[in-house]
Amino acid sequence: MTSSLIETPGVEPVSHQEAPPFAIVHGTALMRLPRDLYIPPDALEVFLETFEGPLDLLLYLIRHQNLNILEIPIARITEQYMAYVELMKEIRLELAAEYLVMAAMLAEIKSRMLLPRPVDAVEEDDPRAELIRRLQEYERYKQAADDLHAQPQLGRDIFQAEVEGPQMHTVRPLPTVSLHDILYALKELLSRAEMFTHHHIQREPLSVRERMVQVLGKLSAENFTDFTSLFIVEEGRKGIVVTLLALLELIKESLVELVQTESFGPIHIRVATSCQ
Q1: By the 8 A CB rule, do 134 and 53 touch?
Q2: Structure confidence by residue, pLDDT tens digits, 221-232
Q3: DSSP run (H or E) holding 179
Q4: What is the SS3 assignment for 225?
Q5: How far apart are CA 270 and CA 254, in angstroms?
């Protein structure tokens, strides 16, 4: 049985049947690493533990060994802390600066605890007190941050449902204005006009042609006007009748148009578009 070979520049030919291809680059199977392949030294970094600062590292060392935060063994913690700082120097030197400050503080606390105290000296505070206070405060803030992070978050634990509804085009025809609708609106106006009949002091001549001019002066072709606003109820029954006759004449001559958006709804009027 024969096996085919693949020849690639810089790669030794290897049979397909010996082993699966190491990688496929642009459709070409590579059975071995190219001889001229260059891998930068920092191409792959693996971080098993990440700390947000020196206090976070100290808190991790204390919790990992189940130590009492009020009784910190400075010597043991300092040794473990320095081992981590030395590792950071080898990997990422720029991150070790703030950790060195904490290392100096630990060394100072350790030296103060090792120094002998005079018998007649006044009892001093525990050198670890300030460090313990900072660790307790940091632990409270870290716990609060963890509690907030555990809350449900939109986009991580909760996802908003979005549904796009179908596009609907509804054509709503406008009802036509009949003579019955006009008479019904006239009836309401007449009933309102009865309340102002006692305000008439003298009779004034009313002209249908003059009222037509007045009505046209109140209307426009761009905006609709309420039908009932054209009637002056203070003029009484005769004034309303004259205004109605003027409107009917204008409608007859196609000078105005009436529109009603719904059955038994209000009537609106405007100048006919053909008159512009």
Answers
A1: no
A2: 788 888 888 888
A3: helix 179-193
A4: strand
A5: 11
- Tell me the C-alpha distance between 179 and 171, whole Å: 25
Query: 271: how many CB neighbours lie within 10 A of its CB?
Result: 20
Whether the Cβ atoms of residue 134 and residue 55 lie closer than 8 Å to each other: yes
Please tell me the distance from the alpha carbon of residue 222 to that of residue 270, in angstroms, as a whole number: 8
Task: Give how far Cα 5 sits from Cα of 14, 136, 267, Å.
Answer: 6, 67, 91
Q: How many residues does the chain have?
A: 276
Backbone angles phi, psi at 184, to 5 degrees: -65, -40
CB-CB contact of 211 with 232 (8 Å): no
pLDDT (tens digit per residue) in 64-101: 877 777 777 888 888 888 888 777 777 655 555 677 77
Specify the pLDDT at position 197: 64
Task: Identify the CA nearest to 134 among candidates 53, 206, 205, 35.
Answer: 53
Instruction: Report the pLDDT value the prediction gives residue 91, as an integer from 0 to 100.
Output: 64
User: pTM value?
Assistant: 0.36
Measuring CA to CA, how many Å separate 205 from each of 41, 125, 238?
Answer: 108, 110, 10
